[in-house]
Structure prediction request, 59 residues.
Amino acid sequence: MAYKIMSEECIGCGACEQECPQGAISVGDDFVYVIDPKKCTEDAACASVCPVDCIELDN
Ligand code: SF4
Ligand code: SF4
Prediction:
């Protein structure tokens, strides 16, 4: 399992990317933030800082 960003609710603030200790979160030219499930260790750091609460455990 890994955390997942619900892209339709993401406001593109970048807080999750800065917070992730694994460097698992990246953003493309379209400003859509995505989590690499292979790098995610499920520590929930990103979810704890997301201002719109759009990061959830994907199971
Ligand atoms: S749960 Fe942790 S490791 Fe996974 S994307 Fe969020 S901050 Fe990074
Ligand atoms: S912290 Fe939340 S709103 Fe901000 S870029 Fe990450 S997923 Fe989007």
